[in-house]
Amino acid sequence: MSSTPRGISFHVNITVAPSSADEFLRRARPTIDLIAAEPKCLFFELFQSADQPGRFKIVENWAMTQEQFMKEQMTKAYYKPYEEATKPLWIEERTAEVFELLSADWTRQKDENVK
Fold this sequence. Notes:
Number of strands: 4
Distance between the termini: 28 Å
Largest sheet: 4 strands, antiparallel
Order of helices and strands: EHEEHHE
Helix content: 25-40%
Strand order of the largest sheet: 2-3-1-4
């Protein structure tokens, strides 16, 4: 089985006060919709911690290298208003990690889970 990377998975952790969770989601929605509509965005999901209601994890899979992602995606104009709208709600610094997607041999997906 091959382990040649075929893109990246970008993981972002954001924490807001539990009382600000709904407001964070409201402010983030326009940018989330723009990100998910990008042609090279393969997958976008937003998770909220079961134990900490204000803790969110964003998972985005992209059909590009990390270098391309930083140059082509992270420079998009819509990130500035997103950060201006959401950053005042953050109670911890945002963290991010990038993972390389391995070959399709390492992907499992049930057809009934795909829209």
